[in-house]
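re: ur question from yesterday

yeah so i grabbed the chain u mentioned. its 191 aa long if i counted rite. heres the sequnce exactly as i have it in my notes:
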Amino acid sequence: MAEENNLGVKIKQIRTNQKLSIEDLADRSGLQLSQLQRIEAEGIIPSLSPLIKIARALGVRLGTFLDDNDHLGPVVVRAGDHSTGVRFTSVENGSREHLNFFSLAADKVGRNMEPFIVEIEPSEQSDYKLSTHEGEEFIYVLDGQVEINYGKDLYRLNTGDSIYLDSIVMHNVHAANTHKARVLVVLYTPF
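ran it thru and got these structure tokens back, copy pasting raw so excuse formatting
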């Protein structure tokens, strides 16, 4: 849980450096105060959408929460060396922890895209919560099968398939069956 708590600490640090109360951040982001308190204290992030809303409310890039170093040149990540960025959990909506994000560019300063390897654990529940945020996503299935709820449509992708979507449309990505899936996700959010 140390990785997640580092995220909460970083959000709180940015907020306090900007002399914003947590109530101000709740107003600006449209998130509930209790959710922000949990994020700062425990680093519990239910999905990517709240993290994007927090970044926008604080006026920082999404990558600011994942940056460890300021590397101006290209960043090379060797196979098996990707760092753990964030584990998203749906604790608030049940006990469905199912997304592990591994950043592929955490050291790159000033980036406009966020590339991740995402491990999607299967869930016994089928009440997937849809989320929305500004930007675009490119998803390429590396292993397994995933289903993507996108608006009123459902897309099933197999290994080697990809989808490019507008993130403003309500969506959810989850394992299509009882097996873990791995995807490459490149996320763009306008700043």
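noticed a couple things. The first helix runs from residue 2 to 17. also The chain has a mean pLDDT of 81.
anyway ttyl
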